[in-house]
């Protein structure tokens, strides 16, 4: 899929609209979910998805085939997320209180996970979410967060260890 | 030992589960997990966490998202077409500065250069315009109307004979000191300057000489200049009896086109009268000295002294007499400073010669002003350079500090964004 992405990007750089449409189709959901899990308001997630792909359009010239398109794409999304967080500092990082509950998942399963995640520190939360939901590799996470890969590893481990207990606690309280 | 190994390996277990281990390591880990119960337990815990996390599902993106992105893409493409045109010209879209910024720079630079040249070469331009005026031949002393009430007319003209008569009368009145007014009015010496442009040089000259003969005048001084390929010119100082002056002038003017005319009437009556009076005194003195010589025969030294005095007085008398005569002549004969310039040749040769000369002059002057301009710019920088340098040095260190701080702040902010 990587090479395909790169090829598509090259095609897009040469002006192929179909290539862009294909890339959009492939990454639409991952990007949407990326934003949806991290922002309180669903509508903002939509906006930011649009902005992300628009930014990809504009930055097409800067893209080098050597770099993985996924990293490129998530890099853009991450920057937009940071900008969004800066814009509305309080409240955005609390996906719980103001969040629209996801329609599909049952509120129980979702809530305890989200609560547990909330109790992690922001750095730990981000690595574990990127790993579990976006399924980025350690390298990709390291590149995105601008930290060494070893840091990613240790953070991830500590995050998961913490989560293990947190999830247990939240689940218990949920049931209880 | 086991714990130590576990500490190191715990992260590796996680890495193994995440598929981040190299193939050999992964194989080794797989083997280890089959044997080590605690590690296997850890692996199970980690998987459990992952699975629980995945319970948090998110709905699919709304359908309208595709339309929104497509529309945005189209809008961007329209804008992109404009920049794509620039791309075709070989310049990257990002390198926008070329079109308008470069032009702005180029124009301002050209403007500055032009301004400097014009400013520094301003004086040569003025000097170029001046020559025509500098070349204008003579100052106009003043055009006194010939019909001045006291101007000598034919009747009242002071002829040489009359002048002599008056002078004689004055002299005759020996020692009386009587200064009589000149008979027939004041004595006026007239000078006329006349510049005429003529067509036929030879003919004009001939006619001028005819006029002179006719009016009993003569040419006191005459110069003819014949520049190669240029207009011939005749300068002459004519002396014409004052009585005939007007008539002669009329005919002279008819020689060609009068370019310039000026008249000067100098009243010399007082001068003359003074001179004559002095002359009389001197003569009287001479007579007395001569009487002294005749009557008293005294010492030799005294006699010699008297004789010396006599000769000195005689000398003075001669001098004054000559002056008197000249003055009389000036009054009697009016002066006409005539200049005849050939016109025809000038027209023929003028344009080509002057155009060529003009162009050559323009080139020379242009180079000169360019050189002046360049020197001016250099001087400017030499003059202001030190001050500019001083300010640059003063401001360099603070500017650098501020710049570094700004960059550090920016980098720190970038770090904090990505570190979340």
What labels describe this entry?
heterodimer, A: 176 residues, mainly alpha, 0% strand, globular, B: 420 residues, alpha+beta, five-stranded mixed sheet, 66% helix, elongated
Kindly describe this structure.
The complex is a heterodimer of chains A (176) and B (420). Chain A is mostly helical and 176 residues long. Chain A is built from nine helices and no strands. In chain A, α3 crosses α4 and α7 crosses α9. The radius of gyration of chain A is 17 Å and the shape is globular. Chain B is 66% helix and 12% strand. Chain B is of the alpha+beta class and 420 residues long. Chain B starts with a helix and ends with a helix. Chain B is built from 13 helices and five strands. At the A-B interface, α2, α3, α4, α6 and α7 of A face α1, α3, α4 and α13 of B.
Strand tally of chain B is 5
Low-confidence stretches of chain B are: 88-93, 125-183
Query: Class by helix and strand content of chain B?
Result: alpha+beta
Spans of at least 5 consecutive residues with low confidence of chain A: 94-108
* Topology pattern of chain B, helix = H, strand = E: HHHHHHHHEHEEHEHHEH
Shape of chain A: globular
What is the tally of helical segments of chain B? 13
* Helical content of chain A (DSSP H or I, runs of 4+): over 70%
- Mean of all residue-level pLDDT scores of chain A: 81
**Number of DSSP strand runs of chain A:** 0
Q: Determine Rg of chain A (CA atoms, Å).
A: 17 Å
Overall mean pLDDT of chain B: 77
Largest sheet of chain A: none
Number of helices of chain A: 9
From the helix content, strand content and strand pairing of chain A, which structural class follows?
mainly alpha
Name the overall outline of chain B.
elongated
Strand content of chain B: 5-15%
**In whole angstroms, how far apart are the ends of chain A?**
45 Å
